[in-house]
Amino acid sequence: MSESAAPTAPEAPGGAASDLVAIAEGFALPAPVAAVEPLGQGNVNDTYLVSLRGEGQPRFVLQRLNTRVFRRPELVMGNISAVARHVQRRLGQEPSQPGRLPWQVPQVVPARGGTTPWLVRDEAFWRTLSFIEDSRSHETITDLEHAREIGYGLGRFHSLISDLPAAELADTLEGFHITPAYLADYQRVLAENTAASTAERSAEAEHCIAFVQQRQGLAPVLEEARAAGRLQLRPIHGDPKINNLLMASGSGQAIALVDLDTVKPGLVHYDIGDCLRSACNRLGEETRDWQAVQFDLELAEALLEGYLGQARAFLTSDDFAHIADAIRLIPFELGLRFLTDHLAGDVYFKVSHPGHNLERALVQFQLTHSIETQLPAIRAIVERLQAEVAP
Predict the structure, then answer these.
(1) Phi, psi at residue 230, to the nearest 5°?
(2) How many other C-beta atoms can be found within 10 angstroms of the C-beta atom of residue 269?
(3) What DSSP character marks residue 186?
(4) For range 56-84, the mean pLDDT
(5) pTM over 0.70
(6) What DSSP state is assigned to residue 95?
(7) Which of 157, 172, 223, 247 has the fewest CB atoms below 10 angstroms from its CB?
(8) What is the distance between the alpha carbons of residues 83 and 237, in angstroms, rounded to a whole number?
(9) 8 A C-beta contact, residue 242 and residue 276
(10) Handedness of CA 117, 118, 119, 120 (dihedral sign)
(11) Is there a contact between 163 and 313 (Cβ–Cβ < 8 Å)?
């Protein structure tokens, strides 16, 4: 999901390793399964790496999809399959980019002898995808070149799916990134929050409430532009945090954008804003030193250079005009969601201690404030990059 903490994940499957092997062998893999081992520490799905018998065999990713988050898993799989087919077709039609490693996209493995690319076992929903070898992801940006590669990766992905009609994808997360709806939910929770009166709330909570009050007018900026026809729905990734960009282990080049569960119709600005939000805060989303949080303009410029080097061909002048708005809006939106959950009693986001969601809200609001102080510089960067490719 496009946030630092996902809803509480399901417990790991209780079966033995042999059960996981049996599930993996229910998919049309090219050789018998040798081993199934845990992979990563995702907050949403249970993920395993599948190794096959025989030298030189490819590896695969086996996942149990969290159907409490993705309530229509068959639609999620339909979106992933549609995007994978489209990207593979585009890659087959385009010449290779000089000096660049080939772009890759995880491929869906069908169930053995079945008509669907998934299996259901004891009410659990399982799927298998190809594994992208010789790659790694990062939790934080390492340097300007890394930021440029992150931007390249998002731009490459957007460019490859820019001609996929959004209507061919299901909206598997209705209301996601619709900031006015999050604001309305916040206002409802605030009005119902009788257990924490003004006198009982902390100074930090009051700071956040005042911050939102002063910026309520921000909420509809992208949705109003979409309703007016200035921005259009396109296929988007939905969760382009930097750790979803895979880099080649040797060269460090971006070669894939993974975790495609959140692919859906939306505004590319959601992805742009979310990627910059996650990339340009060097202290990270979980810091308690929220007052020291800054939006790193150098990282943002490098990331946008990489992004627009790939995506500029399909962006309109209205798209460019709203990039800075998106960079400001998305951290505000996430802070609003964290604050709402804090006031509601931590019912959505997983927390590790009391006040965790409030701390997260403070970080995102401070990041928003830092962006606001640099908006003229951000707009100037976007305008310069746009002018460099103007006809």
Answers:
(1) -80, -30
(2) 25
(3) H
(4) 92
(5) yes
(6) P
(7) 223
(8) 10
(9) no
(10) negative
(11) no
